[in-house]
Specification:
Helix content: 10-25%
Number of strands: 8
Strand order of the largest sheet: 3-2-1-4-8-5
Radius of gyration: 15 Å
Shape: globular
CATH topology: Spore Coat Polysaccharide Biosynthesis Protein SpsA, Chain A
CATH architecture: Alpha-Beta Complex
Number of domains: 1
Length: about 160
């Protein structure tokens, strides 16, 4: 990423291993506006690292120590107050990106809450879009790193 003009004060974090097929779609949606993108790779043998770097992400290699510990390591590399934690197969739609821009544009000096849930709809393997009646959930994905974060749980 060469310029922070129009970028949100958010570090996007993602932990990966052999996600070359899925990572580009996710990165396409966050690269234009994220202040930083941190990718923590646990030993990919495909083009995951090269793809991450192509989108301007900072790629770090770290042996797998467990889900929570990998997520915590990625969080520790963030330098913005806000972290958006995503998985490689989680793609933000335009509406979600617009809400993020609105949240940071109207909040003075920062958004009023310490954490926000994102509505997620499940797309089954090998499908680009969720089915009409796909289950959804609302995990906390955007949070202030001084107020929330992952536990060191192995799963």
């Amino acid at each position: 990423m060469t310029s922070n003009l129009g970028r949100l004060p958010i570090t996007v974090t993602v932990i990966v291993k052999n996600e070359a097929a899925r990572l580009p779609k996710m990165l396409e949606k966050v690269a234009p506006w994220a202040a930083r993108i941190i990718v923590v790779d646990s030993g990919s043998t495909d083009d995951t690292l090269a793809i991450a770097r192509r989108y301007g992400a900072e790629a770090h290699v770290r042996d797998w120590t467990g889900y929570g510990q990998q997520k915590q390591f990625a969080e520790s590399l963030a330098t913005t107050n806000w972290v958006l934690n995503l998985d490689a197969d989680e793609v933000l739609n335009r509406k979600c990106v617009a809400h993020l821009h609105e949240l940071f544009a109207t909040a003075a000096p920062e958004p009023p809450c310490s954490a926000y849930r994102l509505n997620c709809r499940l797309a089954f393997p090998f499908e680009d879009e969720p089915r009409a009646l796909a289950p959804d959930n609302s995990p906390i994905r955007l949070y202030r790193r001084d107020s929330a974060g992952f536990r060191p749980s192995p799963v």
